[in-house]
Structure formats: C-alpha cells, structure tokens
Automatic annotation (TrEMBL):
This is 2-amino-4-hydroxy-6-hydroxymethyldihydropteridine diphosphokinase. Its EC number is 2.7.6.3. Residues 88-99 form the 7,8-dihydro-6-hydroxymethylpterin-pyrophosphokinase domain. PANTHER family: 2-AMINO-4-HYDROXY-6-HYDROXYMETHYLDIHYDROPTERIDINE PYROPHOSPHOKINASE. It comes from Desulfuribacillus stibiiarsenatis. The lineage of its organism: Bacteria, Bacillati, Bacillota, Desulfuribacillia, Desulfuribacillales.
C-alpha cells in the first residue's frame, strides 16, 4: 500500500457537494481507500483573483494504483463531476491534485510530484499539516508544520458549515 495525499478544491456551487462526491468516488476506486480527511477551509482565490472563494481540503489515501494510473482515474472523476477547463487557475467544480505519493519524486510531461505549487499554497499546507505535521516533503528540509506556519493563514479560515460524516 502506498500513502498518497490529495488536494481537493471547488469554487462553483454546490462546493461542499462536489468535495463530498469526489471523496466518495475516490474511496470507491479499485484498491484504494480514503483513510483521513483534514478540515475543510474557505480560501481566497490564489493565482487568478477575480473568482469566487474556494473550499479546499486534503485527504490521505492508501492505494496500490500507480501514480500515472491514479492521475487518469482522478481526471475521470473530475470529468464526471462536470469539470470544464475554462482557463488556467480559473473556476472549477472540482480540482483534484496529487500532492504527495509516498516520498516519490516524479517529473514527467503529465505528472509532477510533489505538486509544483504546493509550497506556495496555504490552502494545501495548512490542511496537510493537520494530517501529518512532522512529514518532510521530498526536497524540503523542514517539516510541513513549519512550512504551514511560515505560509500563514491570510485569506484562509475553517469552514463552519455542514460537516462531512
Ligand atoms: N501532481 C499533479 N496533480 C494533478 N495534475 C497534475 C500534477 N502534475 C501535473 N499535472 C498535470 O497538470 C495538468 C493541468 O492540471 P489542472 O488543469 O488541474 O491545472 P490547474 O488546476 O489549473 O493548476 P494547478 O495544477 O496549479 O492546481 C493536468 O492535465 C495534469 O496532467
Ligand atoms: N484558494 C484557491 N485558489 C486556487 C485553487 C484552489 O484550490 N484554492 N486552485 C487553483 C487551480 O488549481 C487556482 N487557485
């Protein structure tokens, strides 16, 4: 079994419903189970500012699926949930990023792991540090809780709405 961390984001209504559905579909993938979920956060749009706030979370998954195959299956789930790519970093019903796949370093045309922007995103580092504060990301010296602290909480707060069971 490989331990994988996935980042989920949605900023088209019903954001919570898309996050919930994506997690269910990931848990239903073959040889895969969702083992932990961080709290959900509301976060200001990063990259392209003129769009609705996102809901973001991170989940831990155990799987025997290879990284490339997992990427394909996650992209299928994004399509099932109506994801249309209007523009880079633009609004989406659901975005599923492979943040970490064990301690693998992957750099191909279709997949880069650790995710190339994760160190700049508090909506990734903060929930990830809730799940695994002492984890050291390949290529980093310091553990995730230190990176998350440094990244700060600007534009990020815990979602107070409907909790997922
Ligand atoms: N770690 C990764 N997780 C998910 N997709 C990845 C990863 N590394 C590379 N990709 C590639 O990125 C491509 C574009 O992904 P996507 O449209 O979701 O980008 P984005 O969500 O707009 O931006 P970002 O990747 O910065 O969050 C995908 O087709 C996929 O092949
Ligand atoms: N707050 C926030 N901003 C984003 C997000 C996201 O998930 N959350 N995803 C993006 C493209 O992947 C671009 N900007």
């Amino acid at each position: 079994m490989q331990l994988v961390y996935l980042g989920l984001g949605s900023n088209i209504e019903d954001r919570l419903c898309y996050i919930r559905s994506a997690i269910q579909k990931i848990d239903n993938l073959p040889h895969t189970r969702v083992v932990e979920m961080a709290p959900i956060y509301v976060s200001e749009p990063w990259g392209v500012k003129e769009q609705t706030d996102f809901l973001n979370t991170v989940i831990a998954v155990e799987t025997t699926i290879t990284p490339e195959e997992l990427l394909c299956l996650l992209q299928d789930i994004e399509k099932m949930l109506g994801r249309i790519k209007e523009y880079h970093w633009g609004p989406r019903t659901i975005d599923i990023d492979i943040l970490l796949y064990e301690d693998c370093i992957i750099d191909t045309d279709v997949l880069v792991v650790p995710h190339p922007h994760m160190l700049e995103r508090n909506f990734v580092l903060v929930p990830l540090s809730v799940l695994n504060p002492s984890k050291v990301i390949p290529g980093c010296r310091e553990p995730i809780n230190i990176l998350a602290q440094r990244c700060g909480n600007v534009g990020l707060y815990e979602w107070e709405g409907d909790k997922i069971d």
